[in-house]
Specification:
155 residues, alpha+beta, 4-stranded mixed beta sheet, 4 helices
Length: 155
Amino acid sequence: MPSIEEQIEDLAKRELDKYRVEYYGKTQVLTNEIKEALKKAPSKGGGSGNNFPDIQVLLKTPSMRHIPVMIEVKGTKGDLVKFNEANEVANVDETGKKLYNNIKKYAVNGAIHYAESIITYTESYDESIAIGINGYKEGNKVITEYGVYYLASKH
């Protein structure tokens, strides 16, 4: 069955619009520091080059924390998240080597890759939220599923 990724991304953006959440697309700049961090980090495929989260949000809390939210969207049944045997998101193997196939294929794995890149390659952000969204058709219904992870360097 063909991917409905664009349709799912449009649904996610409409939800953000509904709640008046400002968001940025793949090629838009959330902040210059985040742009540079995504450029410095290895790409989802493991090479050099930019990283382009499908949707980006800068969450501003009442206590004035600014938390980057990286959203990755997929559109095929089974593409939400890949776990390892310990039920952890499988972005690295037991030796610490990055599993780029998982990072590219699965929404949550990709979103976590972006969120970790921001924490690793910026000075201003020590926390980030990764959201993976996947959707697929089952008969006439569109099924959507979400995975949300909070990442921080100080815990």
